[in-house]
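Cross-posting from the modeling subforum.

Setting up a comparison between two proteins and wanted a second pair of eyes on the formatting. Protein 1 (sequence, then structure tokens):
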Amino acid sequence: MAAERPDLHLTLLDRSQKRTDFLRQAVRELELTQVEVVTSDASDFAREAAHRATFDGVVSRSFGAPALVAEVSCALLRTGGRLVVSEPPQDQGGSAEPGVRWPRDALHLVGFGDLAIRGNNPSFAILTLTTLPPADRPRRWAQMVKRPLFGPDEVD
């Protein structure tokens, strides 16, 4: 994305020092001056005041279950910002029905409005933040895992 869109400032985030060291090296070698690499837990990063509601987009290769990805991302996005998540193939839990993995009622609780699934193997869930989430979102990772916003069996 950075090579195709040099007008964008990108922040690459991962909690693994080994992975972010690799990313930093790649960014240097490719001379991508508009890319920042951060080593941090996503939920910790999203709770920092300096990062709340500051991003136009979040792109995820699904770093967790949909409920976790939605809760972390809602805090990072500005109103109107979009979350784009790579969906698993249909034979591995993906679904052509948007509400199966992404129940709209639960997504509304953290500010997401529009939801669309684009593409077909690969497919991507695209969610638009319509209102800022409550100040207590996201919770710490362990809390989100123990009590997710929604579960795998819920539908709208």
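Protein 2 (same layout):
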Amino acid sequence: MGLDYLKRILTAKVYDVAIETPLERAHSLSVRTANEVLLKREDMQEVFSFKLRGAYNKMAHLSPIQLERGVIAASAGNHAQGVALSAAKMRCLATIVMPTTTPALKIDAVKRFGGDWVNVVLFGDSYSDAAAHAAELAQTKGLTFVHPFDDPDVIAGQGTVGMEILRQHQGPIHAIFIAIGGGGLAAGVGAYVKQLRPDIKIIGVQTVDSDAMAQSMEQHKRVTLAEVGLFSDGTAVKLVGEETFRLCEQYVDSVVRVTTDEACAAIKDVFQDTRSILEPAGALAVAGLKQYAAAMGLQNQTLIAISCGANMNFDRLRFVAERAEVGEQREAIFAITVPEERGSFRKFCDLLGPTNVTEFNYRMSDSAKANIFVGIQIGNRAQADELQQRFIASGFDALNLTDDEMAKLHLRHMVGGRSNLADHELVYRFEFPERPGALTKFLTALNPGWNISLFHYRNHGADYGRILVGIQVPPADHAEFDKFVKQLGYPAVNETENPAYKLFLK
């Protein structure tokens, strides 16, 4: 199309609503990657995302007649909030079409930013349904459609992020990492940076299950995905824009793909450096930076990641915390088979040595063998393989589940059930100080004459660990067991008569 994006970006009208966000050093990430890692903090915008830049710039270039008629957009997230804030600022009526499945939190945010200037319409089960309805309304009511990414004015508005980066850091930059959904941010930043500093690499980042741009660039044509992963909902786009694809082919050097676990690890990384919680799409650039730096063996280079959004649903945080350790290659997960006999757990714990156990799930189910689901803290992925070989060499069957999605997502919560073998079972909850070796200390303190029939433990990063233990204690030993519990010195609650235990586990 021959558009002069450099001029468009330099003259973009975004600062009536947007701020020039800081470019901050991520200290811990810099140390761990042996590079200078800088975060472009677009999560600090009023709508917690870069999206208001493009939305406002598009609306600022509309004619008075178009503004009087009003605008319309389809979005379930950040773009909707950007359009809403822009509409309120420009006193322009805006219709926002959102899927009926959109969380109330996001609907309320759009209404809060837009006030009386915004009308929210809920339609369809997906973004595609909402977008089709928005296009129909735009035509029938004469409204101007504000596209989330495939529009020159939107792209130029997002490109001001690149303009700020070059102004804020005038020294050498090896690469800028940018999350890609439809491609608006990468297209805009790439178009600006490459025309002024062609030596700087522009690296796009997508999830492995929403990689429309990566596939399109590989095949040199736009590729439509049949399905997209929804964890990084801000980048879950089946078909990238026509104009964004043209610009990304021209200005983006490569696209790296990251996993859900790597995205979760990146959310944790940014939190540790900034105390801010990014949404999955907002953390993709950091995940891609880490993967790229490791693969290329980079050291002492300046790497910039655009933290592009922080509209995180609170209820996702448990999932993020569970998966971050695996994504950071700090946790390995195994299924271990040991003989169902007294002392087996003790032998297994002795084998672990000082290694920190992060999870331990077991329920007696077989008179001959015991299957244990266990998580172990590691320093790198190679240690997982070393641990597996150590288990096998000691006579234990060991299955590495670290990359098994079903195990990580579901199985770890389903180990257990009733047991016909757990005679004379007492069930207790214990708390103990969370430190390396604490779980092993607990297990070794047990009388070897008492058999463990149930065990559940998960390290959630708190100061205290919590475990649920089933122990087969003959009635004649109850007094001795009570003495053991008191001498142990850990807070303990007898749950043997708990109705939930009787219903599901006894």
